């Protein structure tokens, strides 16, 4: 049974605590996660002996401690612990509705009543963050990319990165008002890379990743190889192109298909019939584009002269 002195103490704390200055200091407001715990402790607990201590949440009493006993009110009985030496209050199994102001009131055995307050903000942990991007192929200069993010929890900030550098808005990169989606229109090859979106709050964060590949080309088609060779030698012509995905190749000789579909055209042993124009065509299966380049090869015939000596 709670004594009359206990109720008298409650009445005194309620009547007089609000009129005195706050001298108990707390370093900073607290943040907590749903289901987690937090500890409130003044930075400057009184050095004198204490007669009565009381913790409030808003207008609700959490506990009252006398010199020889501590009474925890029913709503908090299984959720708090109290250290009478440091005046620290631990609150466990946090809920969103625990957010608010917490006030500590102390009546020393001698001296003025002391009060101080701090605040708590409870957040839901961030989970299930993911990025949803375009499923169709992205072609440079023709199509647009729309990336949207999803996640659960108390989200206080959203950050976007591309290849580990901050992704900033521009003429072609536009963020939604809540920063949870981004539109890139039209896409350029420089937009290829790894995109990251991070959801944050003061107690948790989670990041999702998505890679974009921008297709382009072919372009800058070139053929490397000799222009003039002697007959009877081996010749290789190599074709290259700038393309994403890699281009496929085909070759023509003097306008006729050769059936060669590799990037290299090889002649094992040249003769005069191999002189002419070699045309390489590079194709991109996604962009449906093709570009051709020609290379002229001259095979020199070796002419042998026989010198006949007249008979004497």
Automatic annotation (TrEMBL):
InterPro entries for this protein: Ig-like_dom, Ig-like_dom_sf, Ig-like_fold, Ig_I-set, Ig_sub, Ig_sub2, IgSF_CEA-related
Domain of life: Eukaryota
Keyword field: Disulfide bond, Glycoprotein, Immunoglobulin domain, Signal
Cleavable signal peptide: 1-21
Record-given protein name: Ig-like domain-containing protein
PANTHER family: CARCINOEMBRYONIC ANTIGEN-RELATED CELL ADHESION MOLECULE 20-LIKE-RELATED, CARCINOEMBRYONIC ANTIGEN-RELATED CELL ADHESION MOLECULE 8
Annotated source species: Cyprinus carpio carpio
Cited PROSITE patterns: IG_LIKE, PROKAR_LIPOPROTEIN
Stretches assigned to the Ig-like domain: 124-211, 218-292
Keyword Membrane: no
């Amino acid at each position: 049974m709670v004594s009359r002195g206990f109720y008298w103490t409650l009445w005194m704390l309620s009547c007089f605590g609000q009129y005195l200055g706050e001298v108990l200091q707390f370093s900073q407001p607290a943040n907590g996660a749903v289901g987690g715990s937090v500890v409130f402790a003044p930075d400057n607990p009184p050095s004198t002996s204490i007669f009565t201590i009381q913790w409030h949440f808003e207008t609700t009493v959490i506990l009252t401690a006398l010199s020889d006993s501590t009474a925890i009110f029913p709503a908090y009985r299984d959720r708090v612990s109290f250290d009478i030496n440091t005046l620290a209050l631990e609150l466990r199994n946090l809920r969103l509705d625990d957010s608010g102001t917490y006030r500590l009131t102390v009546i020393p055995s001698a001296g003025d009543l002391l009060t101080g307050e701090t605040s708590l903000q409870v957040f839901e942990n961030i989970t299930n963050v993911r990025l949803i991007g375009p499923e169709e192929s992205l072609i440079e200069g023709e199509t647009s990319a729309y990336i949207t993010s999803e996640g659960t929890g108390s989200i206080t900030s959203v950050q976007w990165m591309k290849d580990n550098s901050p992704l900033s808005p521009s003429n072609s990169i536009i963020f939604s008002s809540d920063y949870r989606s981004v539109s890139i229109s039209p896409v350029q090859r420089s937009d290829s890379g790894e995109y990251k979106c991070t959801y944050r709050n003061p107690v948790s964060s989670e990041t999702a990743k998505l890679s974009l590949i921008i297709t382009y080309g072919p372009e800058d088609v070139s053929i490397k190889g000799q222009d003039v060779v002697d007959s009877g030698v081996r010749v290789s012509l190599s074709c290259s192109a700038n393309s994403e995905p890699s281009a496929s190749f085909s070759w023509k000789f003097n306008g006729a298909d050769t059936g060669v579909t590799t990037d290299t055209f090889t002649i094992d042993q040249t003769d005069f019939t191999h002189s002419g124009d070699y045309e390489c065509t590079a194709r991109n299966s996604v962009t449906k584009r093709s570009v051709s380049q020609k290379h002229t090869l001259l095979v020199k015939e070796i002419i042998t002269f026989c010198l006949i000596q007249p008979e004497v």
